[in-house]
Design a protein that fits this description.
The complex is a heterodimer of chains A (318) and B (370). Chain A is built from 12 helices and no strands. Chain A is mainly α and 318 residues long. The longest helix of chain A is centred in the middle third of the chain and has 37 residues. Classes of the chains: A mainly alpha (318), B alpha/beta (370).
């Protein structure tokens, strides 16, 4: 049975040992300097976004800019037919040429972008506001609320969205407003599920409990502790969903279920260009909007992916 | 958040004017309902802490010390928990409060330092902001004032050039530095009791000593009471005024620190002390590990819960459970039928049989760590 004296002696000797190492503020300072140097180095060495990212960002920027300012920009009337210039190729008068009714394709493309972008971004905004907030709360609170919302989201998701949208548009009437609302509602359960999962992961973490022990209210915890952590996921998924909604709008337009003609939307333009045997006479009518849509979707997905890579803390420095 | 100050409904006296103990824990039981049965993680624990004092709570993994700390704070999960007993803090019954009232106590009067500084800080917020938040919340400071106070707090926990560090994110700091930030957050609003749940477990030994010394220094300056939860008797030996030794959800020995080390009564406490490796030992000496594992808290053994692992266990130990009692000095409590006298047992040691039924540890139930 070792006596207590020995026990204490040992402790003091190990303490002396610790004291002999000059573990003072000076070493802390040195350690921190090294760390800060390392961190600065990290910043310098951070992988650049790359040419493709900036190209994608500029493309999305140009599309957004021209769609917003379509009325101000020196564009021709998208619905006016130059009957003497049918099916023209690109020229100085019509930069992208004209369609089978002599309408300026560039003007139609720019005005058509409005429909695609409104449906995409507004639809996602609806999904984010309702699905996102429900997901945040549901993931944090858990319990019966979570079970109920979760079950509800599964019920909605179990229904094939595109079929539901086609059915509703057919009965309710195809207008930009209706399509945006319907696609927005269809986005809610998707947003809910993704953000709930993310919120749930953070709700169990120590820093949430720590915030609670510092007297933070539930509202505060959700908004100030969990939300900032969820935002990277939210941004990436939102961008992907914007692209998804633009495709769905295009699909509806292609089936003639989007905004009524002659109002242009990219789906409408593709639909027009591929019908009545136009594809063999003037393939450019369909090619331009198809290329525009492809490049926009590719750009949005690429931006979302690169942002995720950059801001994903788990893959990064931790 | 000035609006919350208007809703402050609880009155707290100034530090130093407390009559009687600051914290009174009375017969706290906390159990978890699991698929296998009810896990009695904390089973009838009582103690009190006086203002400015340090209480060490020691026990091995699964002894219920973390659950006890969380029971005191009121941080238990809302479902599948059975709890009883009361916790009084500065005259207010914490166990009877709803979250709204608890939020006035948490942070401002009673705060907690977490075990793992790697996960207890929000990774996407600057440390200055994280410190300033509770100042704004509890002390009604404006943003600027809270910001400069955060700098001072960082300075007081020994972080060099705090003016720059407030803008840093947690990932830019080492473990020791993060734990210093955690301490700064916990102490920001000058609480009267700090619950430190294994504050140094994730840190290496030299940093451990620094952090504990820092905590002790701030405690003296601010006249705080501290509950230091740890599995390491060495951590509390030189820092606690009183020590509670827990085993299988119960207090098995409770004494002032000096008494506990010099007049150990409970064989379990002795075994814990013996298991500390000694620098003076020649190399090659085997560590004195305690044979076996802590009992299953769903079906704890009859009698003394340490009996299956105790070298001095007699038939009586296996039949009836020893009460927490005292011999001589009133502040030395222990739960043992055959207490050690001057460090020696009054009964001959019986070798602990290796073939003793091994019951699954409480970890396997999944409820010991909430």
């Amino acid at each position: 049975m070792p006596d207590d004296k020995e026990l204490f002696d040992t402790r003091s000797s190990s303490k002396m040992l610790a004291n002999r190492i000059p573990m003072t503020a000076a070493t802390d300072e040195a350690v921190l300097e090294m760390q800060s140097a390392a961190v600065d180095g990290e910043v310098l060495q951070k992988k650049p976004f790359g040419f493709l990212f900036w190209f994608a960002l500029s493309f999305v920027g140009i599309v957004l800019f021209s769609a917003v300012l379509a009325n101000v920009l020196p564009l021709q009337n998208p619905n006016f037919g130059h009957f003497t210039d049918l099916n023209q190729g690109p020229s100085s008068a019509h930069l992208l040429g004209t369609d089978d009714l002599g309408r300026d394709i560039l003007a139609r493309l720019v005005f058509g972008a409005r429909v695609s972008l409104i449906v995409g971004f507004l639809g996602v905004a609806i999904g984010l506001v309702f699905g996102g907030s429900a997901g945040l709360v549901s993931g944090y609170r858990g319990g019966r609320l979570d079970i109920a919302l979760n079950a509800f989201s599964f019920i909605i998701l179990a229904f094939p969205a595109i079929v539901a949208v086609i059915a509703i548009v057919t009965f309710w009437g195809a207008s930009l407003f209706h399509i945006t609302i319907i696609l927005g509602i269809a986005t809610i359960p998707l947003m809910y599920r993704v953000i709930r999962a993310s919120s749930l992961a953070f709700a169990q973490r120590d820093f949430v409990v720590a915030a609670k022990t510092m007297g933070a209210t539930n509202t505060r915890i959700v908004l100030r502790e969990i939300l900032p952590n969820v935002i990277p996921v939210m941004v990436t998924f939102s961008l992907i969903t914007v692209a998804g909604l633009i495709v769905i709008e295009g699909t509806l337009a292609f089936l003639g279920l989007s905004v009524a003609l002659p109002t242009p939307s990219w789906g409408n333009l593709i639909n027009e260009g591929s019908s009545n045997g136009l594809l063999s006479i003037n393939p450019l009518i369909m090619l331009w909007p198809a290329m525009a849509m492809f490049t926009l979707l590719w750009s949005i997905n690429l931006i979302g992916d690169r942002l995720r890579q950059r801001f994903d803390l788990r893959e990064g420095v931790l | 958040m000035g609006r919350r100050s208007g809703g402050r409904t609880l009155e707290f006296k100034d530090a130093g004017t407390q009559v009687g103990p600051l914290l009174v824990v009375d017969d706290v039981h906390t159990s978890f309902r699991t698929a296998r049965g009810t896990v009695r993680a904390v089973d009838g624990v009582s103690f009190d802490v006086h203002e400015g004092k340090t209480l060490g709570i020691v026990g091995e993994s699964g002894s219920g010390k973390t659950v006890l700390a969380r029971s005191i704070m009121g941080l238990l999960p809302p479902r599948d928990v059975i709890r009883s007993g009361t916790v009084h803090f500065a005259g207010h019954e914490l166990t009877a409060m709803d979250d709204k009232d608890l939020r006035q106590v948490w942070g401002a009067e009673l705060s907690m330092i977490f075990q793992d500084p790697m996960t207890a800080l929000n990774p996407v917020k600057r440390i200055g902001v994280q410190i300033a938040e509770s100042l704004i919340l509890h002390l009604d400071m404006d943003k600027k004032e809270a910001g400069s106070t955060a700098v001072e707090l960082l300075r007081s926990v020994g972080i060099p050039s705090p003016e720059d560090r407030v803008k840093w994110y947690p990932f830019q700091l080492s473990g020791g530095m993060r734990q210093r930030v955690m301490i700064a957050i916990a102490l920001a609003c000058a609480p009267r009791l700090v619950l430190a749940d294994e504050p140094t477990t994730g840190l290496d030994v030299t940093v451990q000593a620094q952090i504990l010394d820092l905590l002790a220094e701030l405690q003296r300056e601010r006249h705080m009471a501290v509950i230091l939860v740890t599995h390491d008797l060495g951590v509390v030996a030189s820092r606690a005024d009183d020590i509670i030794v827990m085993y299988a959800g119960r207090v098995v020995e409770r004494a002032p620190t000096h008494t506990l080390f010099h007049d150990t009564k409970m064989p379990y406490t002795r075994a814990l002390m013996d298991s500390i490796p000694r620098l003076a030992d020649p190399s090659g000496v085997r560590l004195n590990a305690i044979a076996g594992r802590p009992p299953d808290l769903i079906n704890p053994p009859d009698g003394c819960r340490f009996a299956p692992r105790c070298p001095y266990a007699q038939d009586k130990c296996r039949e009836s459970e020893p009460p927490l009692r005292t011999v001589g000095s009133a502040d030395h409590l222990f739960a043992c039928w055959f207490p050690l006298v001057d460090g020696e047992s009054t009964v001959p040691p019986v070798p602990v049989s290796i073939s003793a039924p091994v019951t699954p540890g409480p970890e396997s139930s999944g409820a010991s760590d909430i």
